[in-house]
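STRUCTURE:
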């Protein structure tokens, strides 16, 4: 082999593509197109997740093997798993394959997975990345959001609906229906039931690593409009909710109103400690983590490089 040929091979970036075949928007055609785009710029290896937690192992193994990039084509739950296998040095790319795929959208990537793959492939080829923070709750990393109470209960209700025959999770419409049912069943009442150390009592707490907190269809939910991926954690915690409060609470979520005294807030924090009166549902990146009687949310600053 000539020296020129060896040099060309050495310059090719090695990438691992992790695919969750059960994610809502992942199809055979899209897998083929995404793989083709990435392979134009990298020496590509593809792995399909086989079980919960598999993406964590795949990412950790790839990082240990010294790949130049890890790309994840899935929904937010599998992004979360992969980031929990990150070594902090290997850059990650995220392609929207879920029903919402909050994280890549919040990073500014295209909603179309093939266009997102082009952006990620270009970043790999050019060595372009963005260093961001991650959050962690009770030791588990999260990419964009975690919550104790309201949204975690909604996530649990959505999971209880099961998946379709292809393994896909119910989408935004089902989530909105479950939130509506929850409001009606509770008569839209949430009493103070947790204590945020050094801040006060609240009904529930929403913790964000960036803005927006999530999306309802195409509408961003700007729960913590000051949150930035490069900073620490932000939180919003309504002190209590009554039926009459629902309109202003919904408006605050949509418009990013961060001045209402009825909502406790924190900005760019390294640590948020919460104690519950009784165990409450806890979620991280839209995944149910079970009930918790306390939660420690921590900022992991400058934790990972993302390809955008």
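SEQUENCE:
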């Amino acid at each position: 082999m000539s020296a020129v040929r060896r040099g060309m091979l050495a310059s090719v970036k090695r990438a691992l593509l992790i695919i969750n075949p059960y994610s809502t928007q992942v199809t055979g055609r899209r897998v083929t197109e995404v793989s083709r785009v990435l392979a134009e710029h990298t020496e590509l290896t593809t792995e399909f997740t086989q079980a919960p937690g598999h993406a964590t192992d795949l990412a950790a193994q790839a990082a240990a093997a010294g790949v130049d990039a890890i790309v994840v084509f899935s929904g937010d739950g599998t992004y979360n798993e992969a980031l929990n296998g990150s070594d902090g040095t290997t850059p990650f790319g995220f392609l929207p394959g879920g029903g919402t795929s909050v994280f890549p959208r919040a990073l500014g990537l295209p909603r179309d997975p093939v266009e997102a793959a082009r952006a990620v492939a270009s970043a790999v080829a050019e060595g372009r990345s963005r260093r961001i923070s991650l959050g962690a709750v009770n030791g588990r990393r999260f990419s964009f959001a975690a919550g104790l109470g309201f949204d975690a209960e909604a996530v649990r209700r959505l999971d209880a609906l099961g998946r379709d025959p292809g393994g896909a999770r119910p989408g935004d419409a089902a989530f909105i229906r479950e939130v509506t049912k929850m409001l009606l069943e509770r008569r839209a009442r949430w009493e103070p039931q947790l204590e945020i150390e050094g801040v006060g009592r609240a009904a529930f707490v929403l913790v964000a690593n960036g803005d927006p907190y999530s999306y309802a269809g195409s509408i961003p939910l700007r729960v913590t409009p000051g949150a930035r991926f490069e900073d620490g954690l932000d939180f919003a915690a309504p002190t209590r909710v009554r039926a009459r409060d629902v309109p202003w609470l919904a408006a605050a979520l949509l418009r990013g109103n961060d001045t209402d005294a009825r909502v406790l807030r924190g900005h760019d924090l390294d640590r948020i400690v919460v104690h519950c009166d009784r165990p409450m549902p806890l979620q991280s990146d839209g995944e149910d983590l079970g009930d918790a009687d306390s939660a420690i949310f921590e900022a992991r600053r400058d934790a990972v490089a993302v390809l955008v």
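REMARK: Residues 3-128 form a domain with the Rossmann fold fold (CATH 3.40.50.10330).
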